[in-house]
Amino acid sequence: MEAPLTITLKHGRYAEDAKPVDRNAVAIADALSDALTDTYRLVLKTHACHWNVAGPMFYPLHQMTEEHYTDMFAAADVLAERIRALRKRASVKPARMIDGLDTGSDTDADPTADEMVRGLLSDHEALSQRFYALVEAAEISGDPVTADLATERAAFHDKAAWMLRATAA
Ligand SMILES: [Fe+2]
């Protein structure tokens, strides 16, 4: 007679906690967490432009920024869920998330539409570079799923940068 099937409940967040730590997954999850934080930061910065931009370019910039923050907000969820799939905690780095963001008040001089566009452009370029680096790191780590996700995000930021660059020209 076969031995009865027994299930052993393990303490800890995951049964897999018993496995040795996968150092590659730790590094990739940390890089994803940086990318998640920077993505949220750019959502906030893009939203501020959406609300406060003024001048003849108001409407096209108001529309473009809405497209961009909508995409990035959805992407942040996908990035966070990939971190969870790698069995790491999904969290943002709060200090870094607001670092350098304009917290302006009514007494501050408003940035011009052109300054806002150039500010967003350089952030999209930087984020794109971060995702290119993540593609490389993920490929080296044998993690094609993260590499695919990072490729998709780099493509988005390259396209957003092109649109902003064309607007600023
Ligand atoms: Fe809006």
TrEMBL record:
One Pfam family cited in the UniProt record for this chain: Ferritin
GO molecular function, one term: ferric iron binding
Taxonomic superkingdom: Bacteria
Domain Ferritin/DPS residue range list: 30-167
Family label: Belongs to the Dps family.
Cited PANTHER family: DNA PROTECTION DURING STARVATION PROTEIN (PTHR42932:SF3), GENERAL STRESS PROTEIN 20U (PTHR42932)
Protein name: Ferritin/DPS domain-containing protein
Native source species: Limimaricola cinnabarinus
